[in-house]
Amino acid sequence: MAFKAEKVFVNLPVKDLNKSVEFFTKLGFEFNAQFTDENATCMIVNDNTFVMLLVENFFQTFTKKDISDAAKSTEVIVALSADSREQVDELVHKALAAGGKPSNDPADHGFMYAWSFQDIDGHLWELIYMDASAVQQA
Predict the structure, then answer these.
(1) What is the pLDDT of residues 42-82, one digit of tens each?
(2) Using CA atoms, how far apart are residues 102 and 31, in angstroms rounded to an integer?
(3) If we measure between CA atoms, which residue out of 5, 11, 69, 64 comes closest to residue 40?
């Protein structure tokens, strides 16, 4: 039987939790106050997907490895689906206006459109719109 997680929690280290919350709030994300304190917050992506933003010192308690400096190296790209090309553009523009940095240029593959940005800690986020009607059914 295949393993299927009911919920996904992505954990990311951040330098300044308040600034990160402010940044992602400007993009339209909400946070679960029940799982928020001075060390962490739970950003709600959807009903089953969450991003835990953890202050670096607190994040370090979960691993024996060094924390990657996301401004210099990449360990993960968080990719989120969007409802339209316009929504992809809107969210990336919001991220850039809120202090994020450009990542890759928009990529238009016909049936799929993607664009990415770096958050204020350098983590990579990619927004993807895929036209389901243009994708061949398996």
Answers:
(1) 999 999 999 999 999 999 999 999 999 998 999 899 999 99
(2) 24
(3) 11
